[in-house]
Specification:
By secondary structure, the chain is an alpha/beta fold. Helices cover about 40% and strands about 15% of the residues. The protein contains eleven helices and eight strands. The protein has an eight-stranded parallel β-sheet with strand order 1-2-3-4-5-6-7-8, sandwiched between helices. β5, α7 and β6 form a beta-alpha-beta unit.
Length: about 260
């Protein structure tokens, strides 16, 4: 099983079981996970992005070599973000980056985002966008962060056919009422994780709207219980070959395409 959506270190608003990297690796291995794509909670709040990525890469080497795959942070609204992207690729040998537009203060219609996507695609890097991190109802009252509006992707995705984009935590994007959502779902270079794919039959609907080849397993652990994502797959009643593709095959193919 490959988990495409885990985060290292501490969430600033509460302690999480598994927020120590060594403990996180041990718990995921015990669940049968063979590989986990890991970003850093620090990346949402810290302006020293280079430091964030260096600590992430070091933790992955120390606690999960050949298990934790680091996905770096890049904030295109900070000066020098091109160097952060270069270091992710050339120094830390990261296969991709994870973006948090709502925490970094830009929309997907921002020209800086398009430029970042263009450069990442040119390097053959995967791009993950976390559309949300937390249910708005449980957010700290003085730090309300609305989900990312994915609508601009409908026009952007066709412009970058080499881009491989993975949308994480899409539970609060407005669902079928999001403008142009059909175009985003049907784009051949967009994948979707299941961490916030809620409601009965949610996974089956996501497969129907996209394809079983473009859905990947993501738990949003340790923020969410790992078992929540696992039960979405186990209880979906989908064919075994689709389950294997979602829990491992699709993510492995994405990473192999990078290599």
């Amino acid at each position: 099983m490959i988990d495409t959506n885990v985060s290292l270190f501490r969430w600033p608003f509460r302690r999480l079981i598994g927020d120590d990297p060594a403990e996180l690796v041990a718990r995921l291995r015990k669940k049968g996970v063979k590989q986990a794509w890991a970003a850093s909670f620090e990346g949402l709040f810290c302006r020293d992005v280079a430091g964030v990525n260096a600590r992430l890469a070091a933790a992955c080497r120390e606690h999960g070599r050949n298990f934790l795959v680091p996905f770096g942070c890049v904030n295109p609204k900070l000066p020098g973000w091109q160097e952060d992207l270069r270091r992710c690729h050339e120094i830390h040998h990261m296969p991709g980056i994870r973006l948090h537009p709502n925490y970094h203060g830009y929309t997907l219609a921002d020209p800086a985002f398009a430029e970042l996507v263009r450069m990442a695609a040119g390097r053959g890097m995967l791009v993950q966008i976390a559309l949300s991190m937390e249910d708005p109802r449980t957010q700290f009252p003085l730090m309300q962060v609305p989900p990312v509006d994915p609508t601009p992707l409908a026009d952007l995705l066709p412009q970058f056919p080499k881009l491989r984009l993975v949308l994480l935590n899409a539970g609060y994007w407005g669902g079928a009422v999001t403008p142009h959502i059909r175009n985003i779902r049907e784009a051949g270079n967009a994948w979707f994780d299941i961490a916030m794919n809620e409601r009965v039959g949610g996974l089956a609907r996501l497969i129907d709207e996209t394809s079983s080849a473009r859905v990947v397993f993501g738990s949003h652990y340790p923020f969410f219980y790992f078992e929540s994502a696992l039960l979405k797959v186990r209880g979906a009643g989908i064919p075994h070959d689709q389950e294997l593709a979602i829990t491992e095959g699709n993510a492995r193919a994405l990473l192999n395409d990078h290599a």
